[in-house]
Amino acid sequence: MSNVKNGIWVLSRLFAVGLYFTSGLDKITHYDENINLMREHHVSGYFPPLMILLEAAGSIAITAGFLTRFTSIFMVILSIMSGFLFYPGYSHAHLMVWLKNISCCAGFLLLIIHGAGNWSLDNWLKKYFKNNKYVSI
Fold first, then answer.
1. 63-69 mean pLDDT
2. How far apart, in Å, are the Cα atoms of 25 and each of 46, 89, 105, 134?
3. Considering the chain, what is the average pLDDT of its residues?
4. Residue 127: how many other CB atoms lie within 10 Å
5. 113 pLDDT exceeds 90?
6. Which DSSP letter does residue 4 get?
7. Cα separation of 31 and 36, whole Å?
8. What percentage of the chain exceeds 90 in pLDDT?
């Protein structure tokens, strides 16, 4: 794969998680408001820390190409669940946000299918453990 394709692969991972990373940071900086919003939607108090972990740390992991397929599975679940939990009923604004969540799922599903690409920690670890005679998988 050429360097241009590898670079586009890295940018794609970054663009796929940009919205989630900023959302995770927002949940950290405005934690109380987010807790109240989630309570209004009957979401357990255990859920926000998990969302923050997935959105912030998961975004960093996907950008670095670390555990990309695994993390992308949870990002798909998060996208679909948050669409149903926080945007019930029909309004134009809710439809747009719900479609945004589903569109993000497409990128994560492609990452699940194709992996992180050549310029990723996943690829480096695969090569390292394959070539390391002292480690058996």
1. 96
2. 18, 27, 20, 40
3. 89
4. 11
5. yes
6. H
7. 9
8. 62
